[in-house]
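User: Quick sanity check before I run a bigger batch. Here is a single chain. Can you write out its predicted 3D structure?
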Amino acid sequence: MGATRSGVRRGWTGRTASPAGCLTALGAVPSAANAARGSGVTGTVLAQGSSDKPLRIKPPKGSTDVIVRTITVAPGGSTGWHHHPGQLIAVVKSGTLTRTLADCSVETTPAGTTFIEPAGHEHRHIGRNLGSEPVVLYVTYLLPAGAPLSVDEDAPAGCGNVTAE
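Assistant: Done. Predicted structure follows.
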C-alpha cells in the first residue's frame, strides 16, 4: 500500500494477495516477445576498450558538460603537461599512448584498452606517442559547465626530463 503526498493511501484494501492472484497478474504483463521492434535506427561502434581495473566515475557537482572527441597524436607527438577540470574516459582506438603522471610514474595504454583521467591540478600528466603509428583516442569529458577541456601545466618537480618533444 502506498501513500500519496497528501497522505491519503491508495491501492490495496488491506488484504494480502494470494500466490495464485500474483501469477494471474503476471500473466497479464506483455512479454518481450510482444514488444514493438525498433526501426530506422543505426549505430556505429567508434572504439571499444577494456580495463583490467574498476573504472570509477565521479561527475562534477552541478551542471555538467559532456563532450565526446576524437584525438590523434602523431608519432613523436605529445599533449604537453596539462590537467582536466573534470574527469574523462578514454578508449585507445589505435597506437599506444604513453602517459607520465604527476608522481612521475609511466602508464602505457595500447589499442583496445581504456582509462580514466581524474580531475584536478594534482592529476596533471603528459601523453606521448613513442610509436611509429598515430595514436587515436575516443574521449568523453565530464566537465563542470563552461570549463575548458584542459589546462596547461608545468612538469612536476622530478619529471622535468619528460617534455613535449
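Residues 19-27 form the longest helix (9 residues).

User: Great, the batch can go ahead then.
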